[in-house]
Specification:
The chain is mainly beta and 268 residues long. The chain has a single domain, classed as Tachylectin-2, Chain A (5 Propeller). A hairpin with a 5-residue loop joins strand 13 and strand 14. The chain contains one helix and 22 strands.
Length: 268
């Protein structure tokens, strides 16, 4: 990329343009010695971005995402008409917004607010709902939308009633893409040690989750790492597209001076 990307979060490709959500951390959140009003840290200070980028990595536009302490965008998706992107406070058990963005006009509409961190979202056009994950993707949310996609009656239901537990733990999700047929593709990573004193390493992976059961139906570790930082290739945003004989994946694992890596998986 030919510009400072900060900390990329989500990515979609629409024709000859990439849209990349990213968070700019100005003051990092600081953990409290003891929880304060149910929070383990302050909000920090930052800005949310949705970058519009050409195929050569040049910045075409920069749309602000979020407001106030809700400045941390997450994984995003394109439903064929709008880009769906969340923004949240940069701390667990906080609050988040979900926006739909017209990719042509770059007009963002806040569709809902919710009293939990929303770290990634994707609209399911098959039943007009938005699926989101919370901090660390430990919980799933499904928000039904009204016909005009301007509000969600589900957003009035408290997290204790609406949240469904994610029973998979080998990766935390960073980005998401709806595949159709009530299945979501999630990509992410987690850290592991070969023993208690070893240096941790990041292992990336992808999971296809059945949205009706919230259970993974397919899991694949991604044994690819950034040649610059050794971060897992699925550390940050990803997007995918079908080719004539397989799948093409786009990965942007590193911050600030990001490189877009493109891999193809070919069917046997």
């Amino acid at each position: 990329m030919n510009f400072r990307t900060f900390h990329p979060q989500g990515m979609v490709r629409i024709g000859s343009v990439y849209y990349i959500s990213s968070v700019e951390i100005i003051v990092a959140p600081v953990k409290y010695p003891q929880p304060v009003n149910g929070y383990d840290r302050d909000t920090g200070v930052g800005r949310g971005h949705l970058f519009k980028v050409d195929l050569n990595g040049n910045l075409l536009a920069d749309l602000p995402i979020g407001e106030g302490s809700v400045y941390h965008p997450g994984g995003c998706d394109f439903d064929g008409q709008n880009i769906w992107v969340p923004a949240a406070e940069y701390r667990p058990n906080s609050r988040g917004f979900i926006y739909r963005v017209d990719p042509l006009s770059l007009r963002a509409v806040k569709v809902l607010e919710y009293p939990d961190h929303l770290g990634g979202c994707s609209r399911n056009p098959d039943d007009n709902s938005v699926h989101a994950v919370n901090w660390g993707s430990r919980g799933f949310y499904r928000f039904e939308l009204n016909h005009s996609q301007t509000a969600s009656p589900s957003a009035l239901i408290p997290p204790a009633e609406l949240k469904r537990i994610n029973h998979e733990f080998y990766i935390d999700y960073q980005d998401n893409k709806y595949l159709g047929h009530q299945e979501m593709l999630y990509t992410g990573l987690n850290s592991y040690k070969v023993n208690s004193s070893a240096v941790p390493f990041n292992l990336g992976g992808l999971e296809i989750v059945d949205l009706e059961t919230n259970l993974a139906v397919h899991q694949v570790p991604i044994k690819l790492w950034s040649p610059v930082t050794a971060r897992a290739m699925t550390n940050n945003p990803t997007t995918f597209e079908l080719t004539t004989n397989g799948v093409r994946g786009y990965f942007m694992p590193d911050d600030d001076t990001s490189v877009l890596y493109i891999y193809e998986a070919v069917t046997a």
